[in-house]
Design goal:
Length: 743
């Protein structure tokens, strides 16, 4: 019973009851038994959708009740806002919730007053680096999706962050939530935590493989599937799921929705287009009308091709979902799917990583994914496939969930059963020893004062999962020595003797790099590029930051090598740093890919329309946003580094940053800096003769109104933000044909 749980606030049982939680699920009860509400550390390794969040909630609220403070670490920004919204339901009881996703170079002082703080692991890491004092007051830290320590790019940050928080504060409670993994016990040993390792699920999950005309399930049963013409299995499954199951003239089971996982964005979009035609004949008039409304909302978000394609599919009851969608699009799709309006969502695996969108059936259509590093198509991990499968079945709504893989031959049927259906979950393994991770984290550890010698550094690293998992002590030392040598060579750290011991200190530059949250290699590349550039062009700077390991570059498609080699010749004098020779195949290719990325940024900063850019570079609107955000951050870092080194090009770097930030040409920077103006409105104002913030503040209101196409509310807000003494429009008659007049 919830009311028997010790040490939680009195109001909690009533609140949960009203929310449909009458009793604890078995893994939750086991967590309470293990002392999670009494400050015990815990590793909970349980299946997707089995109530991990409530375990964390119980721990955090009991810490808050004791007068303490809790931190909830999420792996993705998108999840930070979702979790914050979830915990805000406790604000009515006086629990203050804050979310920290913003800049990487502040100490987030305002968070000191919050009871529960939600942040990404990168953000927490940067808070540690910037010495946020309130971190010392934490009582409870939740690490969501802790199995991601296995992830080569983000895992090391989570791992090191947990080690740092624990080394500052040895009594700290850690609640680590994990999907089912093979070595949860090892994680519990690492974190000195109790363990709840369970495969219990609130709703039955039947796993199976489609082959021929039948679904083969893990319980040995088979179901026939009716297939129309030569349609693909996914189409037949989606239709089958939609239709009510009728026995002897009675509906024994209502129709449900299907979530289809595919391996690329393009495949997600193509599948949604095809499956929309399967879904639409099954819809009634009310559903079609409601879907048309959703489609309109989607089109209103932006006038891009992605927006149109998505709306076209949604109109017919299907949708796609991938990281290239804008947050607004994503939210609309998720809501329409939860409301059972959209019957089929085709998604890339990002959706499996925590976003709560259960459905009756899950189809894992592609179990291989292209991997450039490993060369060719590689099978997905068991953990990933199990997480996707775990999205099947909505407790309280569906009788059970079904998750299906697709086989094209008898051999493949056997293989898929072996590889995924029967398979035990994979163990997770630390990726800390990988170079970029080591480089970054060693510098941060020295700069933030966690270690001041090779010995203390090694003993700090002893608190990481990597050390807990490796028997090969020599390997850790070797990696550390290599990286220290690199950091010293690039002037990020210094060694000095202090009696018998050798001291490690970060140089001023090293401190700046760590505080800016840069990969030291990015910093070295940037410094090398701007050192001798007196008047760098925006394109040159965009190219430089695109070459750093902190920028995720665009791919160079076949045939583009020539095109961008030409671009490189045309802009030869603008490009910064050393250019690799054309004979160094892969380095030259990377350099060109960075140039393509830079051209995208330059187009954006030259006011090219969003849909022109998506066309030209084969990306989604979400990708433009991602590149722009990263470039803005890296150029801000470049600005600081130039200042630090006393270079004379700080102003040029700042302007290139502002241009990419607002997506405007030089002359609009001042106007676009006014809140609520943005690139399009700034251009219209400029064309109406209003060229600066000052001129806007003193402008004739009818001119502003005409420039903003007669939108009174917009004009008022814009004038207000520019500091206009009297922004109200009540006394103004719009005259769209008015000659531009500047006040
Ligand atoms: P996970 O984080 O493990 O993927 P969630 O914490 O999101 O799963 O839980 C999935 C759903 O189960 C949520 O909608 C949640 O409200 C519900 N839930 C959790 N615990 C209980 C419970 N004890 N009784 C009823 N519903 C619960």
């Amino acid at each position: 019973e919830v009311s028997d749980v010790p040490a939680v606030p009195e109001w909690l049982p009533g609140h949960l009851d009203a929310d449909g939680v009458e009793s604890l699920y078995p893994p939750q009860a086991a967590a309470v038994e293990a002392g999670v509400t009494e400050g015990e550390s815990l590793v909970a390794s349980i299946p997707t959708a089995s109530g991990k969040t409530l375990i964390a909630t119980l721990a955090m609220l009991s810490a808050v009740k004791r007068g303490g403070k809790a931190l909830y670490i999420v792996p993705l920004r998108a999840l930070a806002s979702e979790k914050k919204a979830e915990f805000e339901q406790f604000e009515q009881y006086g629990v203050d919730v804050g979310v920290s996703t913003g800049n990487y170079d502040s100490d987030g002082e305002w968070l000191a007053k919050k009871d529960i703080i939600v942040a990404t692991s990168e953000k927490v890491d940067s808070l540690v680096r910037n010495g946020a004092p309130w971190l010392a007051q934490l009582d409870c830290v939740v690490a969501d999706e802790v199995h991601l320590v296995d992830d080569p790019t983000r895992g090391p940050t989570l791992e090191v962050t947990l080690a740092k928080l624990r080394s500052r504060n040895p009594g700290l409670q850690i609640v680590a939530l994990s999907a089912t993994i093979g070595n949860a016990g090892e994680l519990a040993d690492w974190l000195d935590a109790e363990l709840v390792d369970s495969s219990w699920r609130p709703i039955d999950l039947r796993k199976g493989v489609h082959f021929g005309q039948a679904l083969h399930f893990d319980d040995g049963t088979q179901e026939q599937l009716s297939v129309q013409g030569n349609e693909k299995p996914t189409a037949a499954i989606v239709r089958d799921t939609l239709r009510d199951t009728v026995e002897d003239g009675e509906t024994v089971e209502e129709g449900g929705s299907t979530l289809v996982f595919v391996n690329s964005r393009r495949n997600a979009e193509a599948a949604a287009r095809r499956l929309a035609n399967v879904v639409s004949p099954e819809l009634d008039g009310d559903e079609l009308a409601a879907l048309a409304d959703v489609a309109d909302e989607i089109r209103d978000v932006s006038d891009t091709e992605t927006s149109d394609d998505l709306a076209d599919a949604v109109e017919k009851g299907a949708a796609f979902h991938h990281a290239g969608l804008s947050p607004d699009h994503r939210e609309l799709v998720e809501a329409a799917f939860r409301d059972r309006l959209v019957k089929c969502v085709c998604a890339t695996p990002t959706l499996a990583a925590g976003v709560n969108t259960p459905s009756r059936r899950v189809v894992v259509r592609d179990w291989r994914r292209y991997s450039g590093d490993a060369g060719g198509m590689q099978p997905l991990s068991v953990l990933e496939v199990h997480q996707m499968m775990g999205r099947a079945g909505r407790p309280g709504m569906d009788p059970y969930g079904e998750a299906l893989l697709l086989a094209s031959s008898h051999d493949e049927l056997d293989e898929l059963f072996e590889r995924y259906v029967w398979a035990d979950p994979d163990p997770v393994e630390s990726k800390l020893a990988a170079e970029p991770a080591m480089r970054t984290h060693l510098l941060a550890t020295v700069a933030s004062g966690f270690a001041d010698s090779r010995e203390t550094l090694l003993s700090f690293l002893d608190g990481t999962l990597y050390a807990a998992q490796t028997d090969e002590q020599g390997r850790l030392e070797r990696v550390v020595d290599d990286m220290l040598a690199y950091l010293e060579r690039n002037d990020f750290i210094e060694r000095s003797r202090d009696g018998d011991t050798e001291r490690l200190t970060a140089t001023n530059l090293g401190h700046t790099v760590s505080r800016l949250y840069l990969d030291p290699m990015s910093a070295a590349t940037i410094i090398d590029g701007i050192a001798d550039a007196d008047d760098p062009s925006a394109l040159g700077l965009y190219h430089l930051v695109s070459r750093t390991p902190d920028m995720y570059q665009l791919y160079l498609r076949s045939g583009e090598r020539e095109q961008y080699t030409q671009v490189a010749y045309d802009h030869e004098t603008e490009l910064l740093g050393t250019q690799p020779s054309e004979f160094e195949e892969s380095r030259f290719e990377d350099w060109l890919a960075a140039l393509k990325t830079a051209k995208l940024l330059d187009d954006w900063a030259s006011e090219t329309d969003e849909d022109r850019i998506t066309d030209r570079y084969g990306v989604g609107p979400g990708d433009i946003r991602g590149k722009v955000d990263t470039a803005e951050w890296l150029l801000g870092a470049a600005e600081s580094l130039a200042g630090e080194r006393g270079f004379g090009n700080v102003q040029a770097i700042r302007e290139a940053k502002k241009r990419v930030q607002y997506g405007v040409r030089q002359e609009l920077i001042d106007l676009a800096d006014v809140r609520n103006v943005g690139r399009k409105r700034a251009r219209r104002l400029y064309e109406a003769g209003i060229e600066s913030r000052d001129q806007l503040r003193n402008a004739d209101k009818s001119v502003v109104l005409a420039a903003l196409r007669g939108r009174e509310r917009t004009a008022e807000t814009v004038l207000e933000h520019a500091g206009h003494p009297n922004p109200e429009m009540t006394d103004v008659t719009p005259d769209p044909d008015a000659e531009p007049v500047v006040a």
